Automatic annotation (TrEMBL):
This is Protein C10. Residues 485-495 have a biased composition (Basic and acidic residues). Residues 334-361, 470-516 are annotated as: Disordered. Residues 339-359 have a biased composition (Low complexity). It comes from Effrenium voratum. It comes from the Eukaryota.
Length: 611
């Protein structure tokens, strides 16, 4: 067998290096890791079983000890004894009583323990199980902190100097871990290499070598090598903080190590601390003086400085752009523009941040589509808009809002869940920025007549039965939108009655015709916006004369009117129902709501004349 493939070819099985080489083989490494895993699982199970058994014994002991306590203590503790924090505290009191040789009754009735038990009782009486849970979380946090302190003390090792055997064993294990890490690194496994070098550093932290010991030099060199290797692997895996801590520990031992300074600079760059990177590079400049490899170091430092300079320039551009946007929005002055509030009927909807997304779209870097790709994308959007569930959401939006302006504002938000899978399939971001970028990519080809027709068809599919009401014919408002609200409501109700009558004449199984006018009969009278093409940008509506604009009730008043109308319909009071109906008509409620209330009024023997 080739000795280059088998490092144990010239070694005896009694040699420790023979077994170290054998343990580095993949199959042996897997067996050792599996064995360590099941040993850990077994120890964990045994520890949990021991804790459960100990808790059961303590519960019985707590019950016996409370029988010997005073009546006041039993009255205080008995109602809250089944909560875990109280039980844990009493277990600690029993342990303290045994350690000090004091009776449990005397220990539990001290001022400190009585105060703690009283706090437990008050917290549980006030908040119940939630209060007990907060108490348990506080206790658990203290336990975790104590465990971390003890673990840190164990890792830091004894303060006294280690024996000769402990030093030899520690150095032997650390050397093995160092070689194992190098082998894993050469095999292209930085995760395994980092784990091996971590173990080596932990072994060295647990031993203390005397200053006069001849092994002190080898100990320092081995520790520096392990720490630098750990920093290198951490940088490879983007563990910036661990790399920074490892480099700092090396510099505490040798502040002239240029590799440690360079790896610290890389870690600081990953953490975004570019000012400190420059100081590390200046230190390497001073160390490189007089070294035979000075040219190589200067070349690496120059490349790193150029990279840091580019990152700084990029950050400055980003900050300047953010500042300009903030100044445009008056974020730094008292004349800040008020934020538009959401429609009272739709508390869950908010307008999409189109302006912010449009500001981020740069024409030089945005995604683009071919002419055929834009056509296919528009057809896919048209099919998505035709889904029955989406059409029902659009109709509900039309019924919930009170004006055309609100409908166009919230339509993008309603359409975004339908657009999201299409955006992802075509390589755009599934965000408002992606929607704007998609519209820009489509607009590149709207000069083509065929694509323009497809764009109009997609727009019609988006608005559906609301297209004429919102956009109108040739961008002009419909005749019904210019009528007073009372007249529009009457016309909508008449059309609905005619359609219902035709449905009854044609048979009970005939499907009623959908009347789109009743969806927006309650809207305020506004002028329809002009069509802007496939970008779906809607112009701001113009205000109508005061004589033609119906009065708009506030959200609170509409809710109050709706509640009063619902209660009046359930009651048998005709006067109350008519008064509530008059308020609903004046507030501009939908024709369907008014018709239902009128039917209830007639059923009670009242008259709907004049409503």
């Amino acid at each position: 067998m080739d000795p280059r493939e088998n490092p144990n070819f010239f070694l005896n099985h009694e040699d420790p290096e023979f077994w170290n080489n054998a343990a580095r083989k993949p199959h042996m490494k897997a067996l050792l890791q599996s064995d360590d895993h099941w040993k850990l699982r077994k120890n964990t199970w045994l520890e949990q079983y021991s804790q459960v058994s100990e808790s059961n014994d303590f519960r019985r002991e707590v019950a016996d000890c409370l029988e010997e306590s005073s009546m006041a203590t039993r009255r205080l503790v008995t109602p809250i004894l089944h909560y875990r924090p109280v039980e844990l505290h009493l277990m600690q009191v029993i342990k303290q009583a045994k350690e000090r040789g004091v009776p449990f009754g005397q220990m539990v009735e001290t001022a400190e323990n009585q105060r703690i038990l009283m706090d437990f009782r008050n917290a549980i009486d006030n908040d119940g199980a939630k209060g007990a849970e907060h108490l348990f979380l506080d206790w658990r946090q203290r336990e975790i902190q104590q465990s971390a302190d003890s673990r840190r003390q164990k890792v830091e090792g004894p303060q006294a100097e280690s024996s000769m055997k402990e030093v030899q064993d520690g150095l032997s294990f650390a050397t093995k871990y160092r070689k194992d890490g190098v082998v894993d690194w050469d095999r292209g496994c930085p995760e395994d290499a980092l784990q091996a070098w971590r173990l080596g550093c932990e072994v060295l932290q647990r031993i203390r070598v005397p200053e006069a010991d001849p092994a002190m030099k080898f100990f320092s060199e081995l520790k520096v090598a392990l720490l630098k290797n750990r920093a290198l692997a951490a940088l490879k895996l983007n563990s910036w903080q661990e790399a920074l801590e490892s480099a700092d520990q090396v510099l505490k031992i040798d502040d002239q190590d240029h590799k440690a300074w360079f790896r610290k600079a890389c870690a600081l760059e990953g953490l975004g601390k570019l000012e400190e990177v420059e100081r590390c590079l200046d230190m390497i400049d001073g160390i490189a003086v007089g070294r035979p490899d000075r040219d190589r170091l200067e070349h690496e430092i120059k490349a790193k400085r150029e990279k840091v300079k580019a990152l700084r320039s990029k950050d400055e551009v980003s900050q300047q752009r953010m500042l300009q946007l903030g100044l445009q929005k008056c974020l730094f002055s008292e004349e800040r523009e008020p934020q538009p509030s959401a429609a009272p009927e739709l508390p869950a909807l908010q307008a999409a941040p189109e302006s912010q997304a449009a500001a981020r779209v740069e024409d030089a870097t945005r995604k683009r589509l071919t002419r055929d790709g834009a056509e296919d994308l528009l057809k896919e959007l048209e099919r998505a808009y035709a889904e029955p569930s989406f059409r029902e959401q659009v109709r509900k939006l039309a019924r919930d809002v009170s004006s055309q302006e609100e409908f166009t504002r919230y339509l993008d938000k309603v359409a975004f869940p339908v657009q999201k899978p299409v955006l992802e399939r075509w390589g755009f971001e599934a965000t408002a920025f992606g929607v704007v970028e998609m519209r820009c990519a489509i607009q590149d080809h709207t000069a083509d007549p065929q694509l323009k027709r497809q764009s109009d068809a997609t727009t019609r599919a988006l608005y559906g039965e609301m297209y004429n009401a919102v956009r109108g014919k040739q961008g002009k408002p419909s005749v019904s939108s210019t009528l007073p609200e009372q007249e529009r409501m009457k016309q909508a109700e008449k059309r609905l009655q005619r359609r219902l009558k035709r449905s009854e004449d044609s048979g009970s199984e005939a499907e009623p015709v959908q009347d789109s006018s009743r969806l927006y009969a309650h809207w305020r009278s506004v002028e329809a916006p002009a069509i802007k093409g496939p970008r779906e940008v809607v112009a701001a509506p113009k205000e109508q004369p005061a004589a033609k604009v119906a009065s708009k009730e506030s959200a609170a008043n509409r809710k109050e009117i709706w509640a009063e109308l619902s209660q009046a319909k359930k009651s048998a009071d005709v006067k109350r129902l008519r008064a509530a109906l008059e308020r609903a008509v004046a507030a501009g409620f939908s024709a369907v709501t008014i018709r239902s209330a009128k039917q209830a009024l007639v059923a009670l023997g009242g008259s709907s004349d004049g409503l």
